[in-house]
Specification:
The structure is a homodimer. By secondary structure, the first copy, chain A, is of the alpha+beta class. Chain A has eleven helices and seven strands. Chains A and B meet through helix 1, helix 2, helix 6, helix 7 and helix 8 of A and helix 1, helix 2, helix 6, helix 7 and helix 8 of B. Chain A binds a DNA duplex through residues 20-21, 35-37, 40, 45-53, 74-75.
Chain lengths: 233, 233
Amino acid sequence: MIDYGQFCTVARGAEVIGERWTPLVVREMLCGSTRFNDIHRGVPRMSTSLLAQRLRKLEEVGVVKRVTATPGAPAEYHLTGAGEELRPIVMALGHWGARWIGSRLRRGQLDVGFLMWDIRRFVQLDAVPRRRRIVVQFRFPDARDAERCWWLVIDDGSVDLCRDDPGEELTLVVESSVLALTEIWTGDRDAAATVQAREVRITGAARDARDFWRWLGRSAFAGTREQALATKA
Amino acid sequence: MIDYGQFCTVARGAEVIGERWTPLVVREMLCGSTRFNDIHRGVPRMSTSLLAQRLRKLEEVGVVKRVTATPGAPAEYHLTGAGEELRPIVMALGHWGARWIGSRLRRGQLDVGFLMWDIRRFVQLDAVPRRRRIVVQFRFPDARDAERCWWLVIDDGSVDLCRDDPGEELTLVVESSVLALTEIWTGDRDAAATVQAREVRITGAARDARDFWRWLGRSAFAGTREQALATKA
DNA sequence: CAGTATCCGATGCGATACTG
DNA sequence: CAGTATCGCATCGGATACTG
């Protein structure tokens, strides 16, 4: 563990949550993930051994509480009150990043799995047309073989993300480069303009296509990003 | 530099200011230090080469602006707008630490130089009796030889910290263990109670001694700390 | 004072493999 | 699925010495 050797509480706080990867682990838990592998989806580049180590440390300092419902059941990781109070800090950091990190996305930052996981999480359920099962296929021609095709299934208020064809009638097919959809998600580009530019193509009923952009969420920081870019221009 | 390889702005922000030592360097600059060695006083355990490296990085990402008034003059480091906007984040982290880091101060976290530097910075000038030159000697019998004795000189709205006897009449002498004064500073202990317990001794005119605790500031997070400890008890 | 250059050692952490 | 164990490299950063 980091030891700054200072009594200042900024230092002591930074020792706990400033360690490499830790803020992202906390972010993931703030978004609601409680299972080890779910958390890991939010930080896929982190090795599982390191994630386990960080979770132990966070438990030790009282940010995370490890819960095992019944013996033998898989553990769940929950934020404590202290952990929950990190929310404003992590959010502020995200907004700061959205506002001040100017550079375009680098190639190495693109990750379809992470993007889709994020999208799944923030589907605007109350904006989804009710009483219908909706199946959207996402196609990313430039992604690696295994990540080229995803299905988002929304039904009765629940959202599922599949990597295997559910074999149902498709409501929509969304085809895009990884970059284009990511930039829409982050607020770097406008969805309508990107469709205009033919960098995203949506196939399906016109009404469903229009609805799509309503219930598809955006990153929590997209508004800030958008505003920052607008101000600059 | 850290590279999380994620488009999320929390990650991209953390890449910039989540690196080891960086939040403390920013904290120091938010407190007003602009010269290399002044900044270094706030992070004395950091090597100068590493500090230089971090400052370069911060300049590169637009958090710090390096300014040389006249050629040959020593450089000054100023926070940019982006840097200034880190203030709420750093402060929030400090308050979080004050509230949730339960452990007592460890021996290795004590540092008289850092404490006195902090004290000097936050003297409540408007609470200091006017029209008088005030010289306070601080004695720390348990400190290392070179750090046993300090002088705080307040005059005409300016505060100086000396390590050599200014050779003037002393208004007050404050004698304390490093721990005791540090804990008063951080809000872990009450000043009056600590004096009662004879762990701090003040010599001088009664009125000056009473005034002392009024113009001596406390850490910016002491209130939060105090409240957290009170709640627990 | 205000840093830079160099060296070298600790360790953080990634990759891989393995277990219940 | 939910992790643990082990290995080995890279790099981070501390110490020291040096410069204008």
